[in-house]
Write a structure and sequence with these properties.
Elements: E1 7-10, H1 15-28, E2 34-40, E3 43-50, E4 60-61, H2 66-79, H3 89-92, H4 106-110, H5 125-128, H6 131-138, H7 158-170, H8 174-186, E5 190-191, H9 212-220, H10 228-232, H11 250-255, E6 263-264, H12 266-279, H13 282-289, E7 293-296, E8 303-306, E9 325-328, E10 334-338, E11 343-349, H14 361-377
Length: about 375
């Protein structure tokens, strides 16, 4: 695909980003639809989109990129002194202390070290949509490893767990705090709970179409439904929805579970991290971006690195500075702030990317943008 098929604008000095985006689109094929946005020091320098049906204003499910918005709320409450990272979760939420979980701290929970990655028996689609239901199911659940000794991605439940702490302390949900403190003041196209009037702008997520080689790769790495991986990704429920289909279920978009239910454009993803750098003081941002868990992830069975609620994105993109924080989403989205370079980045795509998580093309796009930033600063 030539650069003529790429819509939108770039600032002077970022022309190579447009060319790289066009190259990605050509490699991905004719049904590729995506958005790419970047800000430097709060100024939007890249605003691009391409593909069938998609526009700059299109909204799609962003899966786990939602966790960045949810945990910005937690970071703000820690900054306000409302929450204490080293306080026991059971202090705020007594029922959570059952089955060997009494000593788990909020810090350990945010770092994916609690071991409560799912529930015996799994969840229906309707249950996954409702953070209150997830929290109620997980309060009596025995952890799947001894808390604090290992880490594993709490993919579908971390927002419900941290959200219940927020609700117990403040009487309000993460989604309500986010709307009032982040989305509305900054007029972000990133919603935790999609308003009915915006439904016409929503594009369904298209399923992944793996090649025969990729199917063989998936089969070779397959794990059982009742393994830690199976439980973490809800394969242990007989009627579990396909992961790629979650945002296509209207109740998920409406209730917006804080782990995976957000709906956004790339403008909204990048804009949320501009907001984060303005709302968080440097000390809070540094603490939440500090590595707390790194290495072999018991849930994903590959390498991961986490701070507090956020992913350590420099682990995937070494060109970024220490202290960069953000989160990717299963369909391929990626969003982050890199305070050292002043970069805020948002990428969104409609078709679920193989094998899930940050789409591989983010490596190329992040590198192109970072090179342009570096060149502009001389």
């Amino acid at each position: 695909m030539s650069s003529e098929h790429i819509q939108g604008t770039v600032a002077d000095g970022f022309e190579a980003v447009r060319a790289e985006f066009a190259a990605v689109a050509a490699d991905e094929g004719g049904d590729y639809a995506a958005q790419l946005v970047a800000h430097v020091d709060g100024e939007r320098v890249v605003d691009l989109w391409t593909g069938p049906e998609i526009t700059a204003d299109s909204l799609t499910g962003v899966f786990s990129s939602t966790k960045g918005a949810a945990h910005l709320v937690v970071a703000l409450l820690v900054q306000d002194g409302v929450l204490d990272l080293d306080q026991r979760v059971s202090h705020y939420w007594p029922e959570f202390g059952a089955a060997g979980k009494a000593a788990i701290t909020l810090r350990e929970l945010l770092a994916h070290r609690a071991g409560v990655v799912g529930a015996d028996g799994g969840f229906t689609a309707e249950e996954l949509a409702d953070d209150r239901v997830i929290a109620e199911r997980l309060a009596p659940q025995r952890p799947y490893w001894r808390p604090g000794t290992q880490f594993g991605y709490h993919a579908l439940v971390i927002g419900a767990l941290t959200g219940e702490v927020v609700r117990r302390v403040t009487g309000r949900s993460i989604q309500e705090h986010y709307e009032e403190r982040v989305r509305k003041p900054f007029e972000l196209d990133f919603y935790l709970g999609l308003p009915e009037e915006l439904e016409p702008r929503f594009l369904t997520t298209q399923p992944m179409l793996p090649t025969p080689e990729q199917l063989a790769q998936l089969a070779a790495g397959a794990t059982g439904a009742d393994s830690i991986t199976g439980i973490a990704f809800n394969r242990n429920h007989p009627k579990a929805p396909e992961l790629w289909d979650l945002p296509n279920i209207k109740v998920v978009r409406q209730l917006s579970p804080a782990s995976v239910g957000g709906v956004a454009s790339a403008r909204g993803l990048a804009g949320m991290y501009v907001a984060a750098t303005r709302l968080l003081d440097p000390g809070t941002a540094a603490e939440f971006a500090q590595i707390h868990s790194a290495g072999d992830d018991l849930s994903t069975r590959n390498r991961n690195a986490f701070g507090l609620g956020f992913a350590i994105v420099s682990d995937d993109y070494p060109v970024l500075g220490q202290g960069a924080f953000g989160h990717s989403g299963a369909a391929g989205s990626q969003a982050f702030a890199d305070p050292r370079s002043g970069l805020a980045y948002g990428y969104n795509r409609r078709r679920f990317a193989f094998p899930g998580g940050a789409a591989p093309e983010n490596v190329r796009l992040v590198s192109a943008i970072h090179q342009a930033v570096t060149a502009k600063r001389g």
